[in-house]
Design goal:
Structural class: alpha/beta
CATH superfamily of the largest domain: LCP protein
Number of strands: 19
Distance between the termini: 99 Å
Number of helices: 11
Order of helices and strands: HHEEEEEHEHEEEEHHHEHEEEHEHEEHEE
Number of domains: 3
Radius of gyration: 27 Å
Shape: globular
Mean pLDDT: 85
Oligomer: single chain
């Protein structure tokens, strides 16, 4: 064989070996999923994180409450609504001052945090949904010990304390400056309202801790699984939630949005009712509506029918907390419960759905209320005009499965 032919044969063997090696590498990449992930990275819009999980909503919302450990005041000390808009990739954390005075359905007017003491997470969720006019898809409650346990898994939380913080007993709890806090100290930093401090002044600390949590989740999404499985020393779950899957979805998607600089933290627009640490707040309705329209558009509740949806609920059967049950059935329909109380008597046999407007649109709303409650008779108010669009006098036929 000539020298030229030997070189050609050698070249063919080398090229054949390289082709086989490349084929083997491709098989490994395809089998492991790396090729698909690489193609996703090349073709994806890096500014809009891909949705996680099977949650169907365009903007899933999670209400997150911090409460004291059992044995203390059952009122919520911190409340936030977390939402991820899957259409534009924007994440939102809305901090709600717990001293905001609102109507708690079925109970009357109270500071928002008291809703948890009156009816736990379900009543808090209904109250928040009613206040904002949005869906609350899931709720989660974490006690002080729960926060301490969760934050300990992060190996410390780095915060910047803006001013010296003194508790109600006069003890200095935090000195100014940048510092790393362990879980117990970070939980205290999150929930403390210091001596002489208004609640609004304490909310930036919630933003710091929440940011540290989401940063950790963006680096290791399996953290959420560990938190959901975590139990405290007394056997309680570190996180008490009615929908673990949705909680995981919202936290992971928000973490990715924050990583892509597409998450914003807001505070509920309020105005003070007085002065001093114990002063409450009232919601600024116009600014709240603007904020909700901008940041929670895909989570706004409502249906196909149009018409006024401001509701008054009156207890006409004497069943405790029946107004809360009615509000829960109306919660995803865009209704705003603005007045609750007792009827003139507790002997109503049939629920009355009183319309204060005789238009066809309002009649359609009345029928929608009737369908959601499963009971009730429609009637037109004797004297038109009211601060509400519908008055529901709850009778002995509600709930229908009673």
């Amino acid at each position: 064989m000539s020298e030229r032919r030997r070189r050609q044969a050698l070249s063919r063997r080398v090229l054949g070996g390289l082709a086989l090696a490349l084929l083997a590498v491709l098989v490994v990449l395809v089998g492991s999923g790396w090729l698909d992930r690489a193609l996703d990275l090349v073709g994806a819009d890096e500014g809009v994180p891909e949705p996680i999980g099977e949650v169907a909503q365009a903007q899933p919302t999670l209400q997150l409450s911090a409460v004291a450990d059992p044995g203390g005041d059952e009122a919520a000390v911190r409340i936030a609504v977390l939402a991820q808009d899957r259409l534009d990739g924007e994440g939102t954390a809305l901090l709600l001052p717990t001293a905001t005075v609102v109507d708690v359905p079925g109970h009357g007017t109270f500071p928002l945090g008291e809703a948890h003491a009156l009816g736990g997470a379900p009543l808090t969720a209904v109250t928040v949904a009613n206040l904002l006019g949005i869906r609350i898809d899931a709720s989660a409650t974490i006690s002080t010990s729960g926060w301490a346990a969760l934050l300990d898994t992060l190996g410390g939380v780095e915060v910047t304390v803006r001013t010296q913080l003194v508790d109600l007993d006069g003890r200095v709890r935090f000195e100014p400056g940048a510092q790393v806090l362990d879980g117990e100290r970070a939980a205290e930093y999150l929930t403390l309202t210091a001596e002489g401090e208004a609640e609004l002044d304490a909310l930036p600390r919630v933003q710091q801790v929440l940011g540290a949590v989401l940063d950790a989740v963006s680096e290791d999404p399996t953290l959420v699984d560990r938190w959901l499985a975590m139990e405290l020393a007394d056997g309680r779950a570190a996180i008490e939630t009615d929908d673990p899957e949705l909680l995981q979805v919202v936290l992971v998607e928000l973490a990715l949005a924050r990583q892509a600089d597409r998450m914003t933290t807001w505070t509920l627009p309020v105005a003070p009712l007085g002065s001093g640490r114990d002063a409450g707040y009232r919601p600024d309705a116009d600014r709240t509506n603007e904020l909700v329209a901008d940041r929670f558009a895909a989570a706004r509740s409502g249906g196909e029918v149009t018409g006024g949806r401001d509701v008054q609920i009156l207890n006409g059967n004497g069943v405790p907390r029946v107004g809360q049950q009615v509000a829960e059935r109306l919660a995803d329909g865009g209704y705003r419960v603005i007045l609750t109380g007792n009827a003139d008597r507790f002997t109503y046999e049939t629920t009355r759905i009183v319309l204060h407007d005789s238009s066809e649109a309002q009649l359609a709303v009345g029928r929608d209320v009737q369908a959601r409650l499963g009971v009730g008779e429609l009637e037109l108010a004797a004297t038109p005009g009211s601060v509400v669009d519908i008055t529901i006098v709850v009778g002995a036929d509600f709930p229908p499965d009673r």
